[in-house]
Write a structure and sequence with these properties.
about 240 residues; alpha/beta; 3 domains; five-stranded mixed β-sheet; 8 helices; about 45% helix
Length: about 240
Amino acid sequence: MFIIVKILYNLNKLHVIVVLVIVIIIGYLITIDNPLDQSEHELVAWIQTATNKDAVFFGPETEIDTFKIRVFAKRAIWADDAFPFHEDYIKEFDRRRKIISNIESLSMNDLMNLARLEKIDYYITNRDKIRYYTKTSPAYINDRYVVYVVNENIKNDQFTNYITNNCNADSAVYILDPRGLHFFQSSKGDHDKKSCGKLILVLGDHYSQSEIIRWLLEKNYVKTDLKFKDYLIWSSNKEL
């Protein structure tokens, strides 16, 4: 009798093991080809092609899967639930976790200040949160995620690179404000590139509040789709 019970017990154990193996195999087969959903795939593809390999990202963990950014986009995450293996880093881990837990209460200026102090480059959140940052243009957006550049150096570099790569050396950039027109930078692009003419940067607030600025721009320039910080960009080249 004891032998029969033992055999049945072993069969039950074997049955459980077999079921677990089958479940693991099925789960593996389901996720091996599609570990990311469509929105995640698009986000990861953009990160890999549009950001430097040493770029640092952060955002609310309730909105993004930071481990997928680490694994598939191969970019650093400033803070998440990845607990450090060495006790020397536990205090720093706790400090960052406290900041991240309140991240959604920060304004874009707060985020930029934090990024400057902590050497962070990009902020990722859910697309629904875009309404909180209406004065800042996103670097990337899809049907689920939105990404903002929070590193001022990257913002500057993006615009400078565009001017250099697309405009010849005859092109120049100016800033227009209530005090007047001020030279900002000239293109270092080759002469065989097209002329972007004179590019005028104006803050949205200055444009909306000054009738003279609106008249000057609308009479002599064309508004472009180019992005630089919180500036609107106008060009003397109507084909830009």
